[in-house]
Amino acid sequence: MKKILTLVVACVVFAGVASAQSDSFKSFRVDAGLLYAIPGGDLLDAGVGYYLNPKYQITDNILLGAKVEGAVMGSADENALDISAVVSYAATFDYYFNTNSFRPFVGMDAGVYALGSADLELNGETLASMDLGSKFGIAPKVGFSYGHFDMALQYNLIFGQEKGYDEYNYMSVKVGFHFGGGKK
User: Fold this and answer.
1) Which domain range does residue 164 map to?
2) Which residues share a beta bridge with 72?
3) Cβ-count burial 76-114 (b if 16+ within 10 Å, e if not)
4) DSSP label of 61
5) What is the pLDDT of residue 119?
6) Which of 55, 75, 144, 180 is the most buried (most CB within 10 A)?
7) Residue 158 is part of a domain; what is its CATH number?
8) Cα distance from N-terminal residue to C-terminal residue, the chain
9) Cα 183 off chain centre by
């Protein structure tokens, strides 16, 4: 019964979304780009990554989409080199404030973050190892589009991390382009 109810609700929502569309912009676009990651803790120093985000223009101001994002972060000292990866799969919501060429926006992503593993090493000897698994997280963002160029700041807040391993929360500076979604 739950599966049938979920299917009915999904069909109704999809039908509503499919009938709504922007008056000024093409319906579909894909955002792609690179990011610089700044971890929130002391364990990791910095990192780089990518994102790919297909979106559907619901109205002139609202876009909904799905995002895959990956970031590799690391740090080094005289005893160890630590490298860790975070991959997220999220639903996205963006609200654009106008329909001009320069379009500032705010938004929120919510989804699953697949975390790597953490190892504590001293002089090449592994003292502790932990698989961090997958966690739920949100990512508020602010940015702008100018033509097909995009830039944003986003903070990835990952819930349920082990105490002392909350280093995977990170700020990302994103630079990219979107394909499609231009003026009609």
Assistant:
1) 2-180
2) 48, 85
3) eeeeeebebbbbbebebbbebeeeeeebebebebebebe
4) S
5) 61
6) 55
7) 2.40.160.20
8) 43
9) 25
Q: Is the pTM of this model over 0.90?
A: no
Please tell me the chain's helix, strand, coil percentages from 3-state DSSP, rounded to the nearest 5: 10, 65, 25
Tens-digit pLDDT profile for residues 104-162 = 999 999 999 998 766 666 666 666 565 668 899 999 999 999 999 999 999 999 998 76
Tokens of 84: 């860790």
- Domains contained in the chain, number: 1
User: CB under 8 Å to 119, separation ≥6 — which residues?
Assistant: 82, 126, 128, 129, 130
Instruction: Please return the burial class of 132, using the count of CB atoms within 10 Å of its CB with bins 0-12, 13-18 and 19+.
Output: buried
Distances from the Cα of 86 to the Cαs of 11, 67, 130, in angstroms? 32, 13, 15
